[in-house]
Q: What sequence folds into this?
């Protein structure tokens, strides 16, 4: 054994204790750390020939890289609908690396049974029925890709074609209907060989990002054969929801696969005041849920739910003599693109086991309350204009005067030490968006965000309300 490896092995307990103490210091400082520090990334250095071991690597990382890392796990990182890691989820993630399981087959330990139990807990938490099975993937993009891959196989089933064998070309033209699909949807369609061009935009309700059911029915009536509908349960700009019950009701008259992109919106089910937004989610044929958002588990973690695991296994079947069969209840290796992956379910299992439904309901409801508070603050602040009502956990706003991308970027940059917000365009207007989904974010953070915005917003303008032009 290499002497440095042997040294670290023999002193692993004390080395890990030093890592624990280092991590604890970072966590203690996280709430006050600059959200986007001004330190530039270090210049790349050469690969060492003789490494310094774990202690030396930790020292080099702390000195060179940590000053430039964002506080994305902290309370005022409000971009990309990013959660943090609850204490239990962090512990679960550490143990995931410790056990180092590749839990995709029943031939190797209990890992995939732990994943199945965790999927069952999530199904219960989100109000999905027993008809939905699920598997862990890396994030919402892959969850949407897997869901649409199963939809592609369903389209083939309707036409008497096994797409997994014959290829996407055997389907002929495909139509995927959606109002304001997330950017991961055309990316998935390109990956699956269906092409971005098959995505057909459907009109939204006036002043909304939600689909107009009458417009959707017109598109379905005009379709030549079965198609796919992608419904939104929580849009990234404004947290808007399609009427899932109205969309699902159209299946009585038209043949289509209903895929629900509920990456973060699915967690509205935990709030009594917002659960109506996701009524009908259980009727979807496939559902995307992203866990490193509102469940607050570390990257990367999401689940793909579907009612047709048989079609899912047809797509992702991995035929090898050393693996189990895809027949019956297929092992996880047959349900996602991965043949190897870490036991992502363990972090989710830990946070669900530790805090239960009540703990995660409190996180969701607190985040929604903080978003409403910031929305009210923006409405009253001279120079800023709220572009849409705060429906869930996203605040979308702009400048009242000359809201160019450049001026909004300058505003966000001026606030970057205190809060991180991402740019967007809503109804043709350049804007900023703040998404509340981190378990650490508290009442005291909203005044700090408001103060940063107030200091950076050009003076002299009047406040604006949602919908003003």
A:
């Amino acid at each position: 054994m290499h002497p440095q490896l042997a040294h670290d092995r023999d002193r692993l307990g004390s080395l890990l204790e030093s890592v624990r103490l280092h991590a604890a210091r970072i966590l203690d400082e996280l709430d006050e750390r600059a959200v986007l520090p001004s330190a530039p990334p270090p210049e790349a250095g050469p690969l060492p020939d003789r490494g310094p071991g774990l202690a030396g690597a930790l020292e080099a990382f702390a000195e060179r890289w940590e000053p430039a890392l964002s506080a994305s796990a902290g309370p005022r990182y409000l971009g990309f609908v990013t959660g943090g890691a609850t204490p239990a989820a962090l512990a679960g993630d550490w143990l995931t690396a410790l056990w180092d399981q590749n839990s995709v087959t029943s031939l190797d330990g209990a890992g995939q049974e732990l994943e199945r139990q965790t999927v069952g807990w999530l199904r219960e938490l989100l109000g999905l029925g027993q008809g939905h099975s699920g598997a862990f993937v890396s994030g919402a993009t892959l969850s949407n890709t897997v869901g649409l891959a199963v939809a592609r196989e369903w389209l083939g089933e309707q036409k008497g074609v096994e797409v997994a064998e014959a290829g996407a070309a055997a389907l002929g033209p495909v139509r995927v209907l959606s109002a304001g699909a997330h950017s991961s949807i055309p990316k998935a369609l390109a990956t699956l060989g269906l092409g971005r061009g098959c995505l057909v935009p459907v009109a939204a309700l006036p002043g909304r990002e939600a689909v107009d059911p009458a417009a959707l029915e017109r598109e379905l009536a005009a379709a030549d054969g079965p198609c796919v509908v992608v419904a939104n349960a929580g849009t990234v700009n404004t947290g808007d929801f399609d009427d899932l019950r109205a969309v699902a009701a159209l299946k009585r008259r038209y043949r289509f696969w209903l895929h629900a992109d509920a990456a973060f919106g699915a967690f509205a089910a935990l709030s009594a005041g917002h659960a109506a937004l996701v009524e009908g989610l259980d009727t979807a044929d496939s559902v995307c849920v992203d866990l490193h958002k509102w469940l607050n588990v570390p990257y990367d973690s999401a689940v793909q739910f579907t009612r047709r695991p048989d079609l899912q296994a047809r797509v992702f079947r991995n035929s090898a003599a050393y693996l189990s069969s895809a027949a019956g209840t297929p092992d996880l290796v047959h349900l996602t693109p991965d043949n190897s992956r870490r036991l992502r379910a363990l972090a989710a299992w830990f946070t669900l086991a530790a805090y239960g439904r009540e703990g995660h309901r409190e996180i969701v409801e607190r985040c929604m309350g903080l978003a409403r508070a910031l929305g009210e603050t923006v409405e009253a602040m001279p120079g800023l204009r709220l572009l849409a009502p705060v429906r869930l956990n996203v605040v979308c706003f702009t400048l009242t005067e000359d809201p160019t991308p450049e001026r909004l970027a300058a505003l966000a940059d001026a606030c970057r030490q205190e809060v991180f917000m991402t740019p967007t365009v809503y109804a043709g207007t350049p804007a900023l968006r703040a998404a509340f989904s981190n378990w650490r974010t508290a009442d005291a953070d909203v005044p700090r965000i408001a103060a940063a915005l107030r200091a950076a917003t050009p003076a002299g303008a009047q406040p604006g309300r949602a919908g003003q032009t």
Observations:
- The two ends are 70 Å apart (CA to CA).
- Residues 90-350 form a domain with the Aspartate Aminotransferase; domain 2 fold (CATH 3.40.640.10).
- The chain has a mean pLDDT of 95.
- The first strand starts at residue 133 and ends at 137.
